[in-house]
Amino acid sequence: MISLSEDERDALQEIMNISMGQAANAMARLIQTKVTLSVPAIRTMTPQDFQAMIHGMSNSWFARQSFLGTLRGEVITSLQKEGCEAIAELMDFELPLDHSATEELVLEVTNILSAACLQGFTSQLELSAQLAMPAFYYPETTPQDADWSSILLMDVDFRIEQMQFDARVLIGLSEGSTSELLIPIRALLES
């Protein structure tokens, strides 16, 4: 299991806070509406715990985006089903949303949030990670096929309060990537 000291966790949380703020700003510019975000939660878990958590989010649409580079892992974005039509209207989608338009909306929001989060995060630490294209994800029928023995999960909620819209970005890092991540964080803590 991955272990982080309290200082490492605090430093990672602050770096993620900046990155997620950039993602919230990117989303707010697109929809011309204020987006708030939670303080990022950093925790380690087993793939089984991760699956249980995802299955507990049954009122959401999901998309997955893998990334490779110095860091390897996957970004999973969930969008609460309630409120999707309101965000779709702001993004000039034709309503009501059919299945195809719902998938397009989820993938577009995923791309905006994932790219801003990961780019902000890796650039602060001078690491590299290239995102693949997002894919719609059905956790109840598609097993999580990551080969991770343990997962470092960075979790943040994005909210548009007047619309009851909630999106959540989960970044899972493979165990080897966590070691790479800790090198610049430890250097920051020592300086």
From TrEMBL:
Name of one Pfam family that matches: CheC
InterPro entries: CheC, CheC-like_sf, FliN/MopA/SpaO
Domain of life according to the entry: Bacteria
Keywords: Chemotaxis
Domain named CheC-like protein: residues: 8-42
SUPFAM superfamilies for the chain: CheC-like
Name this polypeptide is given: Chemotaxis protein CheC
Organism: Alkalimonas delamerensis
